[in-house]
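We were asked to recover a plausible sequence for a given structure. The inputs and outputs are reproduced exactly as logged, with field labels preserved.

PROBLEM: sequence recovery
POSITIONS: 304
GIVEN STRUCTURE:
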């Protein structure tokens, strides 16, 4: 079984509205640690990361919000992630935290002489830079930073870069023009919701996992609540209709578990203030359980 470390990242600095900072505690209340321990894993809650104080700083793009705070969070996550020897599960917090988690996991893989692959489950590719963002919300930028895009001089130096070709983005359905250009230029592998509707999830995911195995890579999974259809997961400030279904999401997690390749996980963008009686928090806990070995036949009937 696996030694799992729960690492809280209570940030909402990259998001448009407050609430994500309550996400780590919501996962704890929803029983994440107990659920994973019941599967036979050793689980330790490391508590919450706290970033260093950061004086406000301006950017040439006046829309950019909370630049210093996001940069400070990124540096703190780099440190915590690289120091973690087990299987870290980062409890968000908004998706700007992936600017910390993905490079930290890439540095761990690099130290072992292995590449990092990323399974990015999100309605958005998060490929903006501080120059291209129109909203100014930096939860739309972590994958650009992690893959070495220009324009991040105000961020900490990358501990390690992820190759765009090693990233599979699934579930995209809200992509800006600048992000589309970056996808085409950099060579990310993308399976948007139309592709999933036409061809399903299993075949492209199976091919991607085979690539990870052939390269003897590490695999980081970054799961955003808005990957899921808002009908089953309402607790997110960036709802986009037409997301993944309950079964599609669980199938992905079960297939990744069966591959034996996953080495770290983000659970991000849970805003408990927008939830319905803990519905989304419990679903995200169930998905984490599927990634860590729970099978279809292990699930109990649940009433909402």
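RECOVERED SEQUENCE:
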């Amino acid at each position: 079984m696996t030694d799992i470390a729960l690492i809280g990242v209570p940030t909402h600095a990259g998001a448009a509205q407050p609430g994500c900072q309550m996400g780590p505690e919501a996962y704890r209340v929803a029983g994440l640690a107990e659920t994973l321990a019941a599967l036979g894993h050793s689980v330790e809650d490391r508590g919450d990361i706290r970033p260093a104080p950061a004086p406000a700083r301006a950017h040439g793009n006046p829309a950019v919000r909370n630049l210093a705070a996001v940069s400070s969070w990124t540096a703190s996550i780099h440190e915590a992630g690289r120091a973690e020897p087990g299987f870290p599960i980062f409890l968000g917090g908004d998706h700007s935290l992936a600017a910390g988690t993905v490079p930290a996991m890439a540095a761990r893989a690099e130290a072992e002489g292995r590449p990092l692959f990323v399974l990015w489950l999100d309605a958005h590719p998060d490929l903006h830079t501080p120059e291209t963002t129109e909203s100014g919300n930096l939860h739309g930028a972590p994958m650009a930073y992690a893959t070495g895009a220009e324009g991040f001089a105000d961020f900490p130096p990358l501990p390690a870069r992820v190759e765009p070709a090693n990233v599979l983005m699934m579930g995209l359905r809200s992509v800006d023009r600048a992000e589309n250009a970056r996808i085409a230029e950099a060579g990310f592998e993308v399976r948007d919701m139309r592709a999933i509707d036409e061809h399903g999830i299993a075949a492209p995911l199976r091919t991607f996992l085979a690539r990870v195995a052939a390269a003897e890579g590490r695999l980081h999974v970054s799961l955003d609540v808005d990957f899921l259809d808002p009908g089953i997961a309402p607790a997110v400030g960036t709802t986009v209709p037409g997301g993944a279904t309950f079964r599609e999401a669980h199938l992905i997690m079960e297939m990744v578990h069966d591959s034996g390749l996953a080495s770290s996980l983000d659970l991000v963008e849970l805003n408990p203030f927008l939830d319905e009686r803990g519905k989304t928090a419990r679903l995200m806990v169930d998905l984490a359980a599927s990634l860590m070995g729970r099978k279809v036949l292990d699930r109990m009937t649940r009433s909402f």
